[in-house]
Amino acid sequence: MFENSNLVLPPYYGYVLLDLVGVFMEQMYFSVQVMRARRRYNVPYPNQFEQKTEGVSRFNCIQRAHMQFMETCIFFVPALLFAGLEHPREAAAFGLIFLIGRLVFFHGYASGDPQKRLRGAFYVIGVLGNLALCVRSALKHLA
Fold it and tell me: Membrane-spanning regions, if any (predicted)?
C-alpha cells in the first residue's frame, strides 16, 4: 500500500500500531460493558446516567469508567502515534502500560466501589511517558 509513497515508518512502528489496535479493542469492550449494564440496571436511552438518589450506582460507575477512557484517549492516541515516529519501542511500551492500566482502572471502577479505580492509576505512566517522548522529539526538531 505504501510502496510508491514517500511515507516511511521506522522499524518497530508496528508495535505502536498494535497499541492503537489495543485502544480500539478496549473501546469496544468498554462500550459492550456499558450496553450490558444499561440492560441489567434498566437505564433507558437517552439517559446517560442512572437517576439514583442514594448510594453508589453500579451503572454510573461503569458508564463513568468508559467515559473517562474516552476522555483520556483524545490526547493519548496522538501522543502515542507521534512519539512512536522517533521512539517506537519506548512509545509502544508506554502504550502497553496505558492499556493494562486502563483495563485495571475500568474493572476497579465497574466493581461499584469508585476507589478501586485507583488500582489502575498507573496508566498515567503511559500517558506521561509518551508525552515526554513527544516533547523530546519536538525539542530535537526546533533547530
Answer: 12-32, 91-109, 121-139
